[in-house]
């Protein structure tokens, strides 16, 4: 059953939040579709743009679970680990390791899901630093990247090139951390990425090259990048691992899932996300 459904479970959706300009009544109507604890979490954001991204992120989660697994909206139970990793509490047994991840930054909110592999997603906006030079800005992150990564950034052409190179590394590191379910305490310096013109991307974890992870970078537009990380369920941290039905998978089955080529994101509108509730 898993092989039959694996293509349908694996989704990559993207919403251009900058194109959505709801009135206060429209925003409240969309938020009212979610359970109360999600509405309360959204209301805690001070800035309107942050509230929009938070709302769409949660609508994406419910919409994806409903469309992929066929669970009625009112029966979907999405919770979070102590580190903040969202997961489906009541998934069907056949979809033993179904997991998803969301990200929002700048103009976009996105979601990715997998049936067997862990999946992490991150979006970054390549924006020029305000009130400081590019070099000064990058120094703020000196402890998070390795010597090799900083050397690659330093060889980039000009300040824009250096920023773009930095954000690629940052995006990949964040996708990995989100895939395993770790929180802000994870040492990003433990990860070192190697690549060939940003393809054939590999990761070294604590100095050891991992064969259990695959990464892909996407250029959403001139200012936004997205990354997808896929890896073995046994690498999930404890709190997230307990939400998976079976972290012990056959090697052949795992690598077959890991090597499925990445596809581009499918654009969704807020109207598409909310129509499921009508």
UniProtKB/TrEMBL annotation:
GO terms for molecular function: holo-[acyl-carrier-protein] synthase activity; magnesium ion binding. Keywords: Transferase. GO terms for biological process: lysine biosynthetic process via aminoadipic acid. Pfam families: AASDHPPT_N, ACPS. Residues 119-222 form the 4'-phosphopantetheinyl transferase domain. Residues 19-114 form the 4'-phosphopantetheinyl transferase N-terminal domain. SUPFAM superfamilies: 4'-phosphopantetheinyl transferase. One of its GO terms (cellular component) is cytosol. Its EC number is 2.7.8.7. This is holo-[acyl-carrier-protein] synthase. The lineage of its organism: Eukaryota, Viridiplantae, Streptophyta, Embryophyta, Tracheophyta.
């Amino acid at each position: 059953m898993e092989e039959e459904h694996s293509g349908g479970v694996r989704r990559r959706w993207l919403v251009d939040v900058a194109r959505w300009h709801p009135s206060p009544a429209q925003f409240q109507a969309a938020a009212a579709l979610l359970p109360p604890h999600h509405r309360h979490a959204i209301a805690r954001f001070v800035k309107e743009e942050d509230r929009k991204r938070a709302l769409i992120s949660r609508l994406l989660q419910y919409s994806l679970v409903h469309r992929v697994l066929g669970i009625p909206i009112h029966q979907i139970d999405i919770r979070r680990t102590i580190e903040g990793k969202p997961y489906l509490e009541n998934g069907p047994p056949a979809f033993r390791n179904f997991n998803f991840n969301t990200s929002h930054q700048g103009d976009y909110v996105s979601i990715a899901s997998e049936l067997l592999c862990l999946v992490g997603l991150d979006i970054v906006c390549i924006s020029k630093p305000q009130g400081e030079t590019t070099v000064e800005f990058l120094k703020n992150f000196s402890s998070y990247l390795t010597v090799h990564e900083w050397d690659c950034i330093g060889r980039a052409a000009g300040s824009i090139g250096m920023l773009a190179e930095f954000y690629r590394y940052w995006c990949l590191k964040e996708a990995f951390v989100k895939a395993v379910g770790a929180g802000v305490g994870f040492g990003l310096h433990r990860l070192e990425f190697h690549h060939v013109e940003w393809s054939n991307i590999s990761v070294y974890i604590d100095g050891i090259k991992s064969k259990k992870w695959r990464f892909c970078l996407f250029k959403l537009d001139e200012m936004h990048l997205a990354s997808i990380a896929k890896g073995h369920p046994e690498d999930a941290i404890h709190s997230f691992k307990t939400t998976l039905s079976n972290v012990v998978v056959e090697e052949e089955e795992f690598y077959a899932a890991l090597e499925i080529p990445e596809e581009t994101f499918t654009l969704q509108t807020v109207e598409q996300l909310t129509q499921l509730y009508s």
